[in-house]
Specification:
single chain; 363 residues; alpha+beta; Jelly Rolls; 8-stranded mixed beta sheet; 4-stranded antiparallel beta sheet; 14 strands; 26% helix; oxidoreductase; Fe2OG dioxygenase domain-containing protein; iron; IPNS-like_FE2OG_OXY
Length: 363
C-alpha cells in the first residue's frame, strides 16, 4: 500500500455511484461508459457449467502428508494454480460469525451518508481510504464501484486517520477477520510450497513480515450494466488474494480463461483465492496470475471484501532457483525489490497484466 505524491495528479470530477443511483437511477454519466470492446459481456453462468473453477478442501490438506486425501488435494491445488490461477477454498476453518461480522460492518459503512464517508478520503495517487483507486487523469474511464481500502499489517503501513469510528465495532471486526485471513494465507502458502516440491516454510521465511491490506468494494445496481465495468480488468500485484463475496451475491467476478471471460459462481461459505503477480515471478511462470474483472447487475448490489497478502516491501523478488533451468525453463523475470514493484503497481491504472511488464526479461 505504498503512497504517491498527490500534488500533480488531476483526476477531475469523480461521481459517487451510490449517490448517482439515488438522484438519477436511470442515467449513466459519460465517464462511466466504456468503449464497445471494453464492456462487460453479461454471461449466464449456466453457459459455463463445465467451467467451474477448482474447489480445494482445506480439511483434506490438514491430514498426514502420506494420506491419499492429502495427496489428491495437493494435486488438485497444483493443477488449480497452474491451469487457472484461481480456486475456491472450502472448510477453511474461519468461523461463520467472523465472516458475517466483517460483512455486516462493511455494508453499514457503505450505507452511511456520503458526508460521513468523505471523512476518510482516498486522495489522488493513494490506495487507502474511500473513493476510487488507480485514477490518474481527468479523462480516465471510471468503474461502477465505490471502494474503501486500508493497510492492515504491519502497523507501519496503516493510516490511523482513515480507520473509521463508525460503524461501531468496524475496527474490532476488521482486526479479528484480518488475523484469520492472515493465518489462512500462511497455510495456503505452505501447501503451495509443498505442491512445488519445496520446503513448506519456503515462502514464509522469504516474505519476512508480510504486508496485508484490505479493500471493500461496493457495486450498486446499474441501469445499463452492458455499458460499464464494475472493476477494470487486472491481475493482482500480491502473492495471494482472498475474496469474500457477500451472501446471496450475484455473479460479478469474471476471470480470463482461454481468451474467454468466465463467470465465477460463489459457493456458500467458500473463499475465492487467486495467485498474484508475485507468485508468478517466484515460480518463474509455473503458477500464473490471471486477469480478472467485475461486472454489475441491473437489480442487485454486490459487496466484496478483498485481502491482499504480499512479501515485506524490503524483500528481493526473483524466480526461485529450484524452478529455473537454463535449458528447459530459463529465467523469465528479473530481480527487483518488492516495494519498488508495489509502487509501480499503484502508480498505474488497472490495465490487464501490463504491470507485470516491470519484471519481465525481454528477449
Amino acid at each position: 500500500m505504498a503512497h504517491l505524491p498527490i500534488s500533480s495528479i488531476r483526476v477531475g470530477k469523480i461521481d459517487d455511484v451510490q449517490e448517482l443511483i439515488k438522484s438519477k437511477p436511470n442515467t449513466v454519466p459519460e465517464r462511466f461508459i466504456r468503449e464497445a470492446n471494453e464492456r462487460g459481456v453479461l454471461v449466464s453462468h449456466k453457459t459455463h457449467l463445465h467451467h467451474h473453477i477448482p474447489v480445494v478442501d482445506l480439511s483434506k490438506l490438514s491430514k498426514p502428508h502420506t494420506d491419499d486425501d492429502f495427496l489428491f488435494e495437493i494435486l488438485k491445488l497444483s493443477q488449480a494454480c497452474e491451469d487457472w490461477g484461481f480456486f475456491q477454498v472450502i472448510n477453511h476453518g474461519i468461523e461463520v460469525g467472523v465472516v458475517e461480522d466483517i460483512e455486516k460492518v462493511a455494508k453499514e459503512f457503505f450505507e452511511m451518508p456520503l458526508e460521513e464517508k468523505k471523512k476518510y478520503p482516498m486522495e489522488p495517487g493513494t490506495v487507502q481510504g474511500y473513493g476510487q483507486a488507480f485514477i490518474f487523469s481527468e479523462d480516465q474511464k471510471l468503474d461502477w464501484c465505490n471502494m474503501f481500502a486500508l493497510g492492515v499489517h504491519p502497523p507501519s503501513i496503516r493510516n490511523p486517520k482513515l480507520w473509521p469510528s463508525k460503524p461501531a465495532r468496524f475496527s474490532e471486526n476488521l482486526e479479528g477477520y484480518s488475523k484469520e485471513i492472515r493465518k489462512l494465507c500462511k497455510r495456503l502458502l505452505k501447501y503451495i510450497a509443498i505442491s512445488l516440491d519445496l520446503k513448506e516454510e519456503r515462502f514464509e521465511e522469504m516474505f519476512g513480515e508480510a504486508v496485508q491490506a484490505v479493500r471493500m468494494n461496493y457495486y450498486p445496481p446499474c441501469s445499463r450494466p452492458d455499458l460499464v465495468m464494475g472493476l477494470s480488468p487486472h491481475s493482482d500485484g500480491s502473492a495471494l488474494t482472498v475474496l469474500q463475496q457477500s451472501k446471496n451475491s450475484r455473479v460479478g467476478l469474471q476471470i480470463l480463461k482461454d481468451n474467454t471471460w468466465v463467470p465465477v459462481l460463489p459457493l456458500p461459505n467458500a473463499l475465492v483465492i487467486n495467485i498474484g503477480d508475485t507468485i508468478e515471478v517466484l515460480t518463474n511462470g509455473k503458477y500464473k496470475s490471471v486477469e480478472h474483472r467485475a461486472v454489475t447487475n441491473r437489480e442487485r448490489e454486490r459487496l466484496t471484501i478483498v485481502t491482499f497478502y504480499a512479501p515485506n516491501y524490503e524483500v528481493k523478488i526473483e524466480p526461485m532457483g529450484e524452478l529455473v533451468d537454463d535449458e528447459t525453463n530459463p529465467c523469465k523475470y528479473r530481480s527487483y525489490n518488492h516495494g519498488d514493484y508495489s509502487y509501480h503497481y499503484v502508480s498505474n491504472k488497472l490495465q490487464g497484466k501490463k504491470s507485470l511488464d516491470f519484471a519481465k526479461i525481454l528477449n
